[in-house]
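Document type: protein sequence-to-structure record

Subject area: structural biology

Format: plain text, a pair of labelled lines:
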Amino acid sequence: MTMGLSRFFRSAFNAIRNREKALPGTLLEEHVRSLLARRDEFLRGASEFGTPQYFFDEPGLSLSLARFEEAFSGRLKRFRLFYAVKSNSFPGISRHVVEKGHGLDVSSGRELSMALSLGCRRILFSGPGKTDDEIRAAVTHRDRVTLLLDSRGELERLSKILLAAGPSDGVVRVGIRITGKHHGKWEKFGVPLEDLGPLFQKAMSTPGVDPQGIQFHTSWNLNPEAQVRMIKAVGSYVRKSLPESAWQRLRFLDIGGGYWQERGEWLNPRNTLLGHLLRAFDPDREFTLRHYYRPSKPIAHFAGEISEAIAGEGRPLRDLEIWMEPGRWISTPSMHILLRVVDKKSDDVVITDGGINLLGWERPLEEFIPVINLTRPSVREIPMRIFGSLCTPLDIWGDSLFGEGASPGDILLIPDQGAYTYSLRQSFIKPIARVIRFDGSSLSEAEPEKGHEETDRL
């Protein structure tokens, strides 16, 4: 099957499952108005520090972090939050999370090093294919790190590393990751549920290793149905297949992240089921100015359904600490992008001074992102091609603009770009933009992340 056909059938399946709907105009207008209410903050950032820039919105981060924590801690007596660093690796976000008393979920030696440098005391190290050096780093900092084992092979390598290191005062806390019921290539993560028991008992008999938990991840969730199914599957398996000695060792159940923001997934018409079908017959088809979305449940709904599922499983799940690894939900509103119009090709085509290398991929071709003219503000949406300044036709921010037209010098806002953009940014043609921190009152330039210092900024 070709890649194109594979994407088509995958989109068809997702559309049937999620029932794509027209994006309500009231929802879109309300969101644009909420951003325009902060217009002066954004314009001040552009005026003082120039463009393009990442606008680190610390109040937005603080609000999303507090709302997530409150939703689940209000339902679960023993709840711990670990921010998924991979969703946005800007150190200022992780620092804020740590200062609020939460942990960090890291997936590489580089992320682990950053978490340690920030003084984080509760670190989860997850991810497949950990190198020996990464495992050694986790072992060295065993007082602060819980290692999520992804396979029997990782346990065997951990055992060899511990033997080579010699006697130590502390044990290495580990959890066993199990594969969720995903399709396609998600099998790269964890072990099948039926292999949990043998691997957990193997870890129990490995000197220096203390198995304490079980982890799973259910991809990107617009509702809690997948998490509830996995909780029930894990609960049933543990009751039937794990001995009492294993029950006594269990301390936590980690149900991962993947929570979608409450506004849902906003789509361009070309990325809907019908859009894919039309493009299969006419790749150059032009679409009308209409947007779609896949609705998402509020975080309070997730908290209610998940807590009820855990309680319903009885022992031992109901007695465990419940850990979560939110990334997208926390980081989405934490960062925006500010651009300046530098050229006007025609009444409905403009070029900005920042390209989608700031995102790391052609995200606007897949998702609908409202582009807002802060200089000529309006809640009225007009057709307009808004391109970046890279030498590629795929460098486009959107096909419409909220504003009274656009001219050179105007400041444009690309909102809510905190998740899976900054971490994927790349120095392609143009340099990586700097980060400007807004703490609620003052603005300041953040220190460049180590390894990404810009020597070629014009």
Summary: The domain at 59-267+299-330 is CATH 3.20.20.10 (TIM Barrel). The chain has a mean pLDDT of 91. The CA atoms of residues 431 and 458 lie 9 Å apart.
